[in-house]
Amino acid sequence: MALNGTNAKEKFKQRLAENVKTLSRKTIETASNEQLYEALVFTIRDLVTDKWIATHDAYNRQDVKIVYYLSMEFLMGRFLGNAIINLSMDAQVREVLAELGIDYNAVEDAERDPGLGNGGLGRLAACFLDSLSTLQLPAYGCGIRYHYGIFEQKIENGFQIEKPDNWLENGDLWGVKRQEYAVEVKFGGNVSAVQKPDGQYAFVQENTQSVRAVPYDYPILGYDTNTVNTLRLWDAEAINKFDLDYFNQGQYQKAVEEQNLARTLSEVLYPADDTMAGKELRLRQQYFFISATLQRIIARFKESHSNFAMLPDKVVLQLNDTHPSVAVPELMRILVDENGVSWDDAWEITRKVCAYTNHTIMSEALEKWPTELFSRVLPRIYMIIEEINRRFCTQLVTWFGNDPEKVRNMAIIADGYVRMAFLAIVGSHSVNGVAALHTEILKSQELRDFYEIYPNKFNNKTNGITQRRWLAHSNPSLARLVTDIIGDGWLKDLGHLENLLPYANDSAFAEKFMQIKHDNKVKLAGRIKYLTGQSVDPHSIFDIQIKRLHEYKRQLMNILHALHLYNTIKTAPWTDVTPRTFIFSAKAAASYRRAKLIIKLINSVADLINNDPAIEGRLKVLFLENYRVSLAEALIPAADVSQQISTTGKEASGTGNMKFMLNGAITLGTMDGANVEIFEEVGPENIVIFGMDLDEVKALYASGMYNPWDVYNLDTNVQHVLTQLINGSLSDNHELFRELYEALLNGYHGSMPDEYFVLKDFAGYANAQEKVGALYRDRAKWAQMAITNTAKSGKFSSDRTIRQYNDEIWKLTEIPIIL
Question: Order of strands, edge to edge, in the sheet holding 417-419?
């Protein structure tokens, strides 16, 4: 429904008014922003539904091959704005609402972010779904409909406090419950071998705990296409929701016990796993959505086909990290146990269907489960993995001879654990990293043994972001300027941005570009004032680090440097320090004690700096609570500096670096992850790099000779900031930050001292920050760098990434949808 004509606009207004009346018993004039949001969603959904139905009718009619993107996380952000952008109706909807006296931004702000992800993994999945629909490729995203998401972060007295993120509190306006596709998922019990009439044996699960998995479907619109793919999120319900007998006996809790137990599966993303109960719940969650998804996939396949050898021609499962790796044995179970496919045939089918994306370099993050837990919770799946492992180990002996250490290092089950990454590698036909450096590290270090036996499986797919959300939606003023100069082709082919390069030295264009940046900073400053009461100077450098809080991402180095700048100004007030506003936002895992302590440190340093009148506005530190997509959409367009400072060799890719780059921020970073490819695109003159390179980091780890006291003894700046951790400068409790002090200098509870080289790289980082300050003062140079970063960001579109996945792994056919 285009809104270009008067009649179309009036019809849209009429529909909106009718929806307000039907849903809220109000008029447009009396409705709240929340009620207007609800009515607007239903008005937009009316425009989407016909396309959604047509898309899946076409898929069924043409019997197409479909990719199922399996992920524990889908950090979608708000649905409304993205849907309107992809319908190419943004300007028209804003205009219509303005004519009705409605503030579109206020209405959009009424939508809560679904907290269905923790960071880059979930946001990447969301970008990929957007690109799949835009490229007209048949796809489902499959995950869990968490009732409370990751958590809502509150900062109380500087500490992170986790609160339930009740994003469903006001209903689920975008989800469609598909009760007809509900399936049963079984846990526990025992497995028996039963002889069939043909003399063969089949395995049967008995005495199981069962839950019903019910799918909710969410529309994923493509930009400038009629394609609407589906995000399918599974919710858990009890088979028997309510026991009336127990209730009538007065045993009210017992009457709903099954339902309460079932609901725990879909209550929270990543429950704390520092207890065995938490570990078990995570394992159950993973199997729950994988089993439900595969049961539905096979049921759909059987509606049109009887020959399972055709399954790889119709289905591809993309495992987004190790969490969905249980798909390998579950598909084997369904094929062998439920459909009578022979083991050898089922294994060939499974390996052709499954493809695995690795998202981590850190070996400790390669998921593994205690065999006792796994075999108890998923006994039949464990039996299948045992057989996969037995056959794989037999192959290893054939290839390498009697080498017990080699077999032990590569076995799927070893030392009392099931190694899920190894299972995914053995059970898939493709294994990809997510940045060029990451993939090379996998091949040469972490997964070298597997690369040696499966070299053709390994490939790289550098991550990407969708420009529709991260420029068109998040930064509409810059999007309009870009379109005015080079046209709107960049919305579907981000490579068009390279046409901006000739304007990098055009003073008139640079003035417009930088004015938009300043306006975004002013807008963010207003939001910060509203949220925190703190005033910030839009003329200062907005230096931003927003990402999951983890030690290897080195938020600790960032805040120690801010403290160092404070010390410099206090001891030498005449020092020429370019004014800076350091902005942090991050969530730490609920059970990650040290990461939560770093959040407290950031807030303590902020209290020290922000309340010292001697600083005269030259320095400000802010921690914005409850990091989420909508907050990132406000921060990224206003950033001058993008902090991407992970220890080299630890970050797989990163996508925040790409979002900042697209919006004209300058990367301050190490040669890690996708920073390497950003460096290659923009050139050394348009990025600020510091720190050890990969070879230096590897050598230092391997030598075992690194002693952070050597750095401490020679660097008075390091001495000063570390002493402040324990001398009462930051807290009346001198011991509060003792763990951070010890971890950096001596190691803590068995960890390596300064494990992520915060102190080793500190001087280089401080020098790089000085360079940033000098560059920022040269406004013409800074503008040229910012424009160049935007112009060279074309490579980092998720459209390009998805095309590579499809050309090299999935082999899907583009399906135009005709209405």
Answer: 368-370, 417-419, 413-414
| Three-class secondary structure assignment of 229-293 | EEEEEEEEEECCCCCHHHHHCCCHHHHCHHHHHHHHHHCCCCCCCCCHHHHHHHHHHHHHHHHHH
| Contact partners, residue 123, CB within 8 Å, separation at least 6 | 75, 77, 117, 629, 655
Relative to beta strand 139-144, strand 641-644 is unpaired
Can you give the pLDDT at residue 507?
A: 97
CA 375, 381, 387, 391 torsion: positive or negative? negative
| Angle subtended at Cα 310 by Cα 309 and Cα 316, rounded to the nearest 5 degrees | 110
192, 431, 418: which is closest to 326 by C-alpha? 418
Q: Three-class SS of residue 176?
A: strand
Tokens, residue 296: 């539905």
Catalytic residues: 359, 547-548, 553, 655, 659
Q: What CA–CA distance (Å, rounded) separates 339 from 316? A: 19
| Pairwise CA distance, residues 530 & 607, whole Å | 18
- How many CB atoms are closer than 10 A to CB 98? 11
DSSP string, 111-148: SPPP---SSHHHHHHHHHHHHHHHTT--EEEEEE--SS
Count Cβ atoms within 10 A of the Cβ of residue 216 and give its class: 0-12 exposed, 13-18 middle, 19 or more buried: middle
For the segment 639-650, what is each residue's pLDDT rounded down to a tens digit?
A: 999 999 999 999
Residue 252 has a pLDDT of: 64
- Measured in degrees and rounded to the nearest 5, phi and psi for residue 183 equal -135, 165
Task: Tell me how far apart the alpha carbons of residues 1 and 12 are, in angstroms, rounded to a whole number.
Answer: 9
> pLDDT at residue 244 above 80?
no
**Residue 2 pLDDT class (50, 70, 90 cuts):** low
The type of residue at 23 is L
Calculate mean pLDDT across residues 96-106: 94
DSSP bridge partners of 368 = 419
Predicted TM-score of the model (pTM): 0.96
d(CA 72, CA 740): 31
With a cut of 70, say whether residue 94 has pLDDT above it.
yes
Write the CB contacts of 293 (distance below 8 Å, at least 6 apart in sequence).
68, 70, 142, 232, 234, 327
654 dihedral zone (left: phi>0; alpha: psi -120 to 50; beta): left
Residue 255 has pLDDT above 70, yes or no: no
